[in-house]
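Revision sheet: structure tokens.
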Amino acid sequence: MRRHAILALLSFGVAVGGGPSLAAPPGRVRTAKAAIQLIYNAQNAAMAARNIKGVMWHRAPAYSVTLPGGQVSTRAQVQKHFEGGMKSVKSPHSVTTIAAFILHGNTATVVMDQRFTATMLPGHGPSGKVAIHNRNRDTWAHTRNGWMLEHSTMLKQDITLNGKPMRFSAPPPGSTSGPHAAAPAGSARQRPRRSRTHEPR
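Predicted:
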């Protein structure tokens, strides 16, 4: 369902990634990691407040996201899906933790785990509580405006509705999860699923 695809994108909006870096002094790595974690926290708070501008603020103009199936979504597509997804849910909540962090010069590669929950509103498909767990690999660049997110790659995604596993018969937008184009209406259905996993390169 288009709505489920939008949800995948919604949750994606707030995610990336702790380990040591061989390319930078420990102190600089700690500072960069802390700064990026603060951005994730701010994005989560913006999502809860339905502040789309806040969710998108640290995404670079050329930001894009790649889904496990290889689909790529642009910044504009991601924002459009966030805006649509917010109309489908209430009480959105997300938490992002950094699982791996590598700093090289002014570029940081982060692997993050993000857990997103929300309640589906009536009239937008099956109602109930949706829970999404994403693992993403993000590329950040330090610019004159601070750290900016340049690209996200979804490595793994698990989705449940009212505690039951779900999967998309078509990839989540852009998957929106960046999202890409949303899956066509009726293209997603509830059924047992196996996690989609792509190992970081």
